[in-house]
Amino acid sequence: MAAETAKRIPFHCVICFEAFHLKDRPPMVLPCGHTFVCLPCTKRIDKCMECRESLYKSSHSIPSSRAFDAFMSPQSPVRAHALTPLPIPKNLVLMSLMEAAEFQLRPSAEDNAAMEDDEELYESHPMIHGITTLSSSCGTYHVKEPLTVVSWDPRSTKNEMNSREGDSTVLMERQKVQVVEFEKGIARLARNAGFVEANVSQLVKVGTPVDEACRLEGLLKTLQNRSADLQRELEANRKLESNLSHRLEVALETTAPIFTEPVTFDSYPTTPEQHSVHSVFNTPYSSSGSSATYSFEETSTRQAFPDCQKDNCEQNYRHLFYYKGSEGDENMDNRTKRMQSLPRMPSQVSTFGGIDFRTGLSGHRGLSVGPRSTSNTPRVRMRMMMSQHRGIPNSRPYRRSFNPPPSSFTDPSMKE
């Protein structure tokens, strides 16, 4: 019913009598309501072809006064009325009827396409046809040099070649031949025309096969080669399967636990036992059992130096904090020799004792030890008077000199 209704509707323009098209020539509706006009024709007309109504809207000008006309020169041109084109929309109802009619005619075209041969559909696809042509050696070849065509395969036995020596023809230069396959220097011609022994410079492929029989023979040869490749892959899979089955039989003969016992956390201690580490400092001037050898026990504070006994340290290092200023060079030399004879402070720390997992400390005391002195001469701390104070901006570490300071102050306890 819809198809019969669509057939009675004139889907063409009443001006140019061209059929409507949904994109290039759609039907339009004029401002007056008349339709069946295509888009190109609406651009060429100014009035409706039926009622002669204008397709433009004129803008009315404001009436001018005499005073304004007096200022205008008589030579000034008179302005024409501006014309504004009215909107001309598409006829959506007529376009929907066109789509319905096209849909009604579509099934018959699909039935006709289904009746075509599959091989013709395969040929109509240019991409598939081009890929097949490029991937195979079948095609049209150009002869660059004169070649001999024999009726037997040159790869066969010599006896067969000698028996067929008389059956041969010659291909002339610039001829074109249909070749089914070309591999290993042997080209097989279509329709069993013979074999040609040549190289790629003597026979050059210039296009797809022209002969239908040559193309079908080429497709058949391609399928045979693919079947041979699949057969080889299948044979390799069978060998691999048999090898894996044999290895599985050997593996099943041995016994191995399938389920293992659960692991407890007690068998894997994460925190080692904390042991006290005793470190001993030895100086170059001390021996075993002497008072210059100090030992201490590591604690969580990780002291950098051991706590010296008060009696020994106070007597040994007491001279470092006092200076005798008025004794002269002789007393200075004696004091220097006396300081060099004192035991030196320990310069090495204990070795690395591992990581304490309870506190997270590694036991390394390199960061807590101060920088080593580059000078071999021990530095002497001297007591200075208030009159010798130089202030905060000018404060600098006092350097030792052989001349005594101005003050002659001497600690009475340091006198011998």
UniProtKB/TrEMBL annotation:
Top-level taxonomic group: Eukaryota
Keywords linked to the UniProt accession: Metal-binding, Zinc, Zinc-finger
Ranges that cross the membrane = none
A single GO molecular-function term is:
zinc ion binding
Family matches, as InterPro entries: Znf_RING (IPR001841), Znf_RING/FYVE/PHD (IPR013083)
- RING-type domain boundaries: 13-52
Q: What is this protein called?
A: RING-type domain-containing protein
Source organism per UniProt: Fistulifera solaris
